[in-house]
Amino acid sequence: MKKIIVLLLITLPYILSAQGLNAIYSFYTFHSQSGNYVELCSSIDLNSVVYNSEIAEVELTTLICKAENTEEVLYVDKRNIKATKNETENQVMLDIQRVKLSNGNYVLYLSFKDKNSTQPALEVKDVIRMNYPENELALSDVQIINPPKKSSNQASNVKNGYVIEPYMFDMIAKDNNTLNYYVEIYNADKYFGVDSLYVLTTAIENFTTNRKVGGVLKGRRMKSKSTSVIIGDIDLSELEEGSYYLTIEVRDANNILHAYKKEAFYKESDKKPTFEQIGIPKDAFVFQLSEEELNENIEILYPVATEEIKRFIDKDLKTSTREVKLYFLYSYWQTKNADNPQKEWQDYRNRLDFVNKKFTTNIKKGYETDMGRIYLVYGPPSNIIDEKFKGSSGFKRRTRADYEATPELERDNPDGVVYLPYQMWRYDHTPFGESNRTFVFYAPQNDMAEYFLLHSNVRGEKQDMYWESVLSRYTLPEGVEGDAGVQFRKGHL
Fold first, then answer.
1. Are residues 299 and 315 in contact, defined by beta-carbon separation less than 8 angstroms?
2. Hey, what domains does the chain have and what are their CATH numbers?
3. Cα of 71 vs its chain's centroid, Å
4. Nearest to 492 by CA among 466, 451, 442, 455
5. How do residues 183-203 score in pLDDT, each as one tens digit?
6. Above 50 in pLDDT, residue 16?
7. 306-333: average pLDDT
8. pLDDT band at 433, cuts 50/70/90?
9. pLDDT tens digits for 351-396?
10. Is the predicted pLDDT of residue 469 greater than 60, yes or no?
11. SS (H, E, C) 289-318
12. What is the CA radius of gyration of the chain?
């Protein structure tokens, strides 16, 4: 499950930028005799880091929480990944972590910070689903890997006597016609019976149509064991350029499907498919858009886009062909709703129209504002508190001794503080599995023409522990909160 954009593109490779840190992450779940675990893989482009005395250093922070209660942190790791200029053959730093997790859903947070740069950290958020029922037939996630090598070492990239390194890019180059993969099969002995035979099938499916590609199919007979390790490869030389799934299936002697797993990839090739071949119908809504409308419909994805899609919009949109843009836009909405991508697109357009009417300013379109972005990403809030110049009586009264000790804290009327205009948006549930979350927006110039995000307890969003002091324009003593602080705290407890 790699997190890059190339699945959506026809001809554009994933090109790493030299401006700002670039990193790719993926994760895969497995089962072992000692329990379930997730393998976290991170790749950092050495061309995007800043060197200090020929040394690159990136701080990688990993946090895993329970999805139903993100306050319950199960795993925290902070490590510095270092490299010397020209140290690695592939010009990347690869890090692999293995974390034991029981069955359930989890929220993953990753932060990449270049220690030699003033640029802010790259932050990502994802959901890990772990489900390996005891005694039931199951497959691990499928890893697309670099060509494996035998090894007797105990390094983090060695599994079952082989060096297994994930292929961190979703794009398979045109001069590479062999796809290597790794997958594990569990509990076949309990499901089929010890030493019973079953069939393992490896196939390639079209990404958009889910149809198997003719001529690219492998099958082998397997004996049922508690755990079977599969290291294999498949020929891609006959594939047209486009997006595909590598599909691993477990079938019985009667060809009945019992379990399967998929992993997506993009194959670069000189063989170019037609729109119909890649699953875009002739009457698709994207063909009705002019060049200007096509660009605009891609640009408005920015508030909800991943970092990879933002990179495409910023760097590649203007120079891309119309064919690439058409495929990009249609594929984006098809991944959201395979049965009716047009409806998904139209629903977003309707939300965007609302946002633009509600939050547009003299200098910004609604979707470019903080409120517009939050609305598009998280949907309408469950509740809104709207306060304009609210006075607070909740601050601790300061004595003359307090003033003499900390005169910089004094204001004309510290016991009658008036807040800047603000709104609190509360969400009972977010689309990312968090509950009882709050956003605080404020108008720093008092004119309420635009509200800016000040603070939130949603992970990955802006957080400022001194937000109430900013809102009140009064430096609160440590441990003191006013009415706004009480509103916020009660909103998410």
1. no
2. 1-132 (2.60.40.10), 135-273 (2.60.40.2550), 285-359 (no CATH), 381-492 (no CATH)
3. 20
4. 455
5. 999 999 999 999 899 999 999
6. no
7. 81
8. confident
9. 999 999 999 999 999 999 999 999 999 999 999 999 998 877 656 5
10. yes
11. CCHHHHHHHHHCCHHHCCHHHHHHHHHHCC
12. 26
Q: Cα 136 from chain centroid?
A: 30
Q: Once rounded to an integer, what is the mean pLDDT over residues 388-406?
A: 63
- Rounded average pLDDT over 418-425: 92
Q: Which amino acid is at 304?
A: V
Q: In sequence order, what E strands does 399-462 have?
A: 422-429, 435-442, 452-456
What pLDDT, on the 0 to 100 scale, is given for residue 107?
92
Give rounded-to-5 percent helix, strand, coil for the chain. Answer: 25, 35, 40
Give DSSP secondary structure letters for 223-276.
E--SEEEEEEEEE-TTPPSEEEEEEEEEE-TT--EEEEEEEEEEE--S-PPPTT
**Do residues 460 and 109 lie in contact, with contact meaning Cβ atoms separated by under 8 Å?**
yes
Confidence (pTM): 0.62
Mean pLDDT confidence for 106-113: 93
Distance, in Å, from the CA atom of 265 to the CA atom of 238, rounded to the nearest integer, reads 15
CA–CA dist 273, 269 (Å, integer): 10
Instruction: For residue 491, give the H/E element and its range.
Output: helix 483-492
* DSSP type of residue 150: E
Under DSSP, the state recorded for 407 is: G
Q: Which residues contact 468 (CB under 8 A, 6 or more apart)?
A: 476, 481, 482, 484, 485, 488
For 476, residues 6+ apart whose C-beta sits below 8 A from its C-beta are: 395, 466, 468, 469, 482
β partners of residue 183: 230
Give residue 324's pLDDT: 79
Sheet holding 55-66, edge to edge: 69-84, 55-66, 104-114, 122-130
Residue percentage of the chain with pLDDT more than 70: 85
- The whole-angstrom separation of Cα 331 and Cα 337 is 10
Token duo for residue 248:
């691993």
Q: Are 474 and 386 in contact (CB under 8 A)?
A: no
Give the H/E segment covering residue 81: strand 69-84
CA-CA distance, 365 to 381, in Å (whole number)? 20
Number of other residues whose CB lies within 10 A of the CB of residue 77: 12
Distance CA 312, CA 167 (A): 21
Of 209, 232, 425, the C-alpha closest to 334 is: 209
Predicted local confidence at residue 400, as pLDDT = 54
Average pLDDT of the chain, as a whole number: 84
Q: Spell out the residues 6+ positions from residue 399 whose beta carbon is closer than 8 angstroms to its own.
A: none
Specify the 3-state DSSP secondary structure of 208: coil
Task: Write the CA distances from 144 to 140, 182, 221, integer angstroms.
Answer: 12, 7, 22
> Hey, what amino acid is at 298?
I
Token readout for 455 is 């603070």
